[in-house]
Amino acid sequence: EMREFLETHPSDLTNGEWKYGSRDGDIFNAIKNGAGKDMPAFESDLTDERIWQVVIYLRDMSTKK
Question: Is residue 32 within 8 Å of residue 47, measured between CB atoms?
């Protein structure tokens, strides 16, 4: 697995539990503004619409487990 080479192991995003909040707005804010030292902000790279698409994708992943 690639995660063994990372300094901080990535979270399991399929379990529906997130460190910085599990509501849709919390996830949106974590993606847009960053969260902690390991999650960079994507505000300048993704539109709000794109970020919402990522939130929907993550929700979909967590319901298929």
Answer: no
Which residues, in sequence order, are bridge partners of residue 39?
A: 35
Q: Are 43 and 20 in contact (CB under 8 A)?
A: no
Contact yes or no for 60/32 (Cβ under 8 A): no
Q: Cβ distance 55 to 31 under 8 Å?
A: yes
| 18-22, 23-27, 32-36, 60-64: least confident range | 60-64
CB 31 within 8 A of CB 46: yes
pTM of the model: 0.77
The SS3 of residue 35 is: strand
